[in-house]
Amino acid sequence: MSGPRSIAIVGNGLGAALAAAMLAVRTKDSARIMVLPGGDDAHGLGPVGATIATRPAFRAVLAELGLAEDAVLAATSGAFSLGQAFSGWRGAAHGWMLPHGDIGAPIGSVAFHHLLHRWRSEGHRATPADFAIAAVAAQSDRFARPDDDPASPLSALDHGLTFDSDRLATLFRRQAMALGVRFDTVPVAEVERQERTRLRLNDGRIVTGDLFVDLTGAQALLAAGHGWQDWRRWFPCDRALVGVARDPQPPMPFTHGGATATGWRSSVAIDGARGDVLFVASAFGSRDAAARDLALPVLDEMPVRAGRCERFWDGDVVAMGAAAAGIDPLHPVALDLLAAGVERLLALFPERAHEPLLAAEYDRRMGAMVERTRDFALLHYALADRPEPMWRAVADTPLPDGAAWKLDQYRSRGRISRLDDERFADGEWAMFFDANGVVAERRDALSDHLPPERLERHFARLREAIVHSVLAMPTHGTALRAIHDRRQAS
Q: CB atoms < 10 A from the CB of 35, how many?
């Protein structure tokens, strides 16, 4: 593949190692890749705790890097995740789950959420999660991998993964080094950006290159001049406190996001531990109160910066990770967004350092993807129903155009309006709206032409197949033990 002959990645931990490994796999021997430590973000991804989760699409990244899923889980004390559970966003008693995989099933061209809308209007009580096999399995602490047979109920399953953050970083670093990436140990001391970027290291060495990737986190050491759009009006949390709890019990197969009076708490469990990150809006609560709420020793504390670069790619510098965008990780998208950024860069790989047209296209595509992801996350805040001042302030903030359009389209007629570079499926959007009190005023008219008995059979068959399949699954702990047993046997 043609492209820059030398690439320098500046950053630490997980983000830098993943970007290096992905670039090395694709460029093979055509580019010299080096990683230089820089910035005070441990992983270059914003607030990452002792553990980190991914969405299902990230499994394809592992496969491309030549990493077997079971081997990665064993090396990182990893676990499976069938979705995200949420609690407290609309009151203490309110909870819901956004599962991975299919949610219900359509009849012909009529989407499942329209079928459910009609069924409920006839007096039936049900939630979308009742007809999502991943949700039922997660809530039952059971797990199975998807089945390739489309006739099997297990074909509707999908899963993400959870890992020990530092161990995953080590794994990616080893893979990158095996592919020829050089990791330097001397941090970047100074960045000189004129016509070409030059890095001065702490030992006085000067590093030049054809292309630079900034993965230094919110400091954005290389991309500080790229401009910044501030999103704090939608994401008020500006501090994150990190803790970890050891837990000998097998983890539940899902992550959790719980709302608090002044922010929210992320919990990601792996085999033997649970990593928590408490996000806090300091304008509405003290740091000491937040530390008490964490109820764990504070291992780290970091600023949270919500927003995005005006220009992701400027000259010979491409911003990625938290240097490029900051979005509250209500869904585990940090690694997915980084991987997508690397993939888009590779698709537009420049032959020279400065390629304005390629940079403009990269900015367009990354901007669309980041803003669509932002819209899904910020609507959790906007649709929350809590009495505390922080939540009322966010509820009174006008939405960005894309999020407002999405909400209005669904509220009017249950329509999921697809925009460029969506990261979430239609079923996920519909389930999110349903769980957060958004009721469509109208439904697909075709749903009203279905005979009642056909609708009844459809829901009964779905539910029966799901319950039967979940009862046959092993527990999540049993599934994890089987992986470790197979690894030891081999």
A: 24
Which two structure tokens, joined as six digits, stand for 316? 């010979």
The greatest distance separating any two alpha carbons of the chain, rounded to the nearest whole angstrom, comes to 78
Q: At the topology level of CATH, where does 6-81+163-373 sit?
A: FAD/NAD(P)-binding domain (3.50.50)
Exposure string over 369-403, b if 16+ CB within 10 A, otherwise e: bbbbbbbbbbbbbbbbebebebbeebeeeebbebb
DSSP assignment, residue 438? Answer: -
Give the C-alpha distances (Å, rounded to integers) separating 149 from 145, 152, 155, 335, 474. Answer: 12, 6, 6, 29, 19
Every domain of the chain and the residues it spans: 6-81+163-373, 101-158+398-476
Query: Residue 342 pLDDT more than 60?
Result: yes
Q: What is the CA radius of gyration of the chain?
A: 23
Spatial distance between the Cα atoms of 323 and 325, rounded to a whole number of angstroms: 6
> Residues 6 or more apart from 171 whose CB is under 8 A from it?
67, 72, 75, 76
Cβ atoms of residues 317 and 222 within 8 Å: yes
pLDDT at residue 194, rounded to an integer: 83
Strand-pairing partners, residue 95, are 87
pLDDT in tens, 410-451: 999 999 998 878 999 999 999 999 999 999 999 999 999 999
- Matching residue, tokens 């690397």: 342
In contact, 303 and 239? CB cutoff 8 Å? yes
**Mean pLDDT in the chain?**
95
Amino acid in position 292: R
Please choose, from the candidates 298, 262, 249, the residue with its C-alpha nearest in 3D space to the C-alpha of residue 277: 298
pLDDT at 490 over 80: no
- The residue among 315, 419, 320, 421 whose CA lies nearest residue 358 is 315
Neighbours of 59 (CB within 10 A): 17
Phi-psi region of 11 (alpha: psi -120 to 50; beta: other; left: phi over 0): left
Tokens 């046959």 correspond to 472
Q: What is the pTM of this model?
A: 0.95
Phi first, then psi: give them for residue 341, nearest 5 degrees: -65, -40
